[in-house]
Amino acid sequence: MRNNPNSLKALMLNLLLAVVVTGTVYPQGQTNDGEVTFFANHPLLEEYVGKALEYHPGLQEALARYRASLQKTSQVTSLPDPTFKFTQFIRSVETRVGPQLNIFALSQKFPWFGKLDRKGQVALREAAALYHMYRAEERQVIAEVKRAFYELAYIDRALEITREEESLLDHYEQLSQVRYAQGQGLQQAVIKVQAEISQVIARSKLLDQQRASLGARLNTLMDRPPEQIIPGLRSISLPEVPLNLERLYDLGEQNRQELKAVMARIEKEERTVELAKKDYWPDVTLSAGWLNVGGRGDPAGILLPPPDNGKNAFNFSVGINLPIWRDKYHAGVVEATEKSIAERKNYLKIRNEMEFSIRDQVVRMQTLRDQLDLYEKVLIPQAEEALRSSESAYETAQLGILDLLDSERFLLRSQLVMARYNADYLRAMTDLERAVGTKFPN
């Protein structure tokens, strides 16, 4: 009474072929089965993501759990261990052919047809779910590295703008001191510029602290010491990104790892229902025994031994368990059915959240792109022109220091806001890539 292993072996082969884990990273879109791709618009970003995928402890934990789950199949599809039983009679049972001394018995339990096969299918689908959750953890690590990287790029750009502002204010301080020495300006103007310089220095220290924190975050994601130096980052260009909602929804349906994991669990619960229904059927136990019989040792037996004196006996038996407590098995079927329903609802929840996230990031990126165009093409050129005009007017004593500083602040704010929007756009693109579960833009 053996379970048919053909379908189980085919399923195992397909799963193993589909989920070979190599650990190789192809950042620019070249991919093999089981490898992860991601969008990177900076060489250091490629390097950091690759190191995080290789060394991140949480990712290694998820991979180990998946690999451990693959070992479950052979455990649940194997027959139970056979039972060997030895019986020694304390007081021998006397028979015509001699006393019964001891019994040796061997039994093997055979689950009902299909039970082991269903258990194997349940275990394989759980392994498939853990595999997709491992891949989801990969996408999460990629997103975390990219968010920290783009934020660090913003901090570096803000520090660069702040240093330029400090240099410009130093120039203004020299001008105001010259004018004050010549009797053409007020000491208040010198003090005002010096106060602005102090504020810039304080802002620069705050940015340095934020950079140190972000650097530690990146190092932690790569499983490196937090204090390891992260080199400075230059401005990162923005790619042209096609934002077609229907196409993005399709990408998410096809690639989002959490959806694939839930689909595997739905299939697992369906097989669990089938397995629970098989509990209504009994398992069969086959046993074989050998009865050791000693020869007649009494005077009559010695004088006139009976036929087959001391001949050992053999036996064979078949047994089944009696699944009479039907309520227990019915409850098992209902439990598995409800879990299947729960996983289906979970699929809908994750899909809805995915579509919301996709739409939210698309709207966010469109809004940020409009704002970036406004600052790049209108506001910053106007601010630069206004500052040049104010500088000329200040040098000819047609404008006071406060008006000059106002023009300088407006340009500074415009440059910082544009840098902020630039980083936010890249982070939104990262969140969109995380939502669809594959490289984006592709």
Overall CATH architecture? Up-down Bundle
Instruction: Give the helix/strand class.
Output: alpha+beta
Helical content (DSSP H or I, runs of 4+): 55-70%
Q: What's the number of structural domains? A: 1
Q: For the record, give the distance between the C-alpha atoms at the N and C termini, rounded to a whole number.
A: 53 Å
The number of helical segments is 11
Give the total of beta strands.
4
Sum up the overall morphology in one term: elongated
Major sheet details: 4 strands, antiparallel
List SSEs in N-to-C order.
HHHHEEHHHHEHEHH
* CATH T-level fold name: Outer membrane efflux proteins (OEP)
Residues in β-strands, percent: 5-15%
Quaternary structure classification: single chain
Summarize the structure.
The protein is an alpha+beta fold and 442 residues long.
Model description:
It is a single chain. The protein is elongated. It is α+β, with helices and mostly antiparallel strands and 442 residues long. The chain is built from eleven helices and four strands; from the N terminus they run ααααββααααβαβαα. Strands 1-2-3-4 form a four-stranded antiparallel β-sheet, with no helix packed on it. It has helices at residues 6-18, 43-55, 57-70, 72-76, 115-181, 187-221, 245-255, 257-278, 299-303, 326-395, 401-436; strands at residues 83-95, 98-110, 284-293, 313-320. Helix 3 packs antiparallel against helix 5. The longest helix is centred in the last third of the chain and has 70 residues, at 326-395.
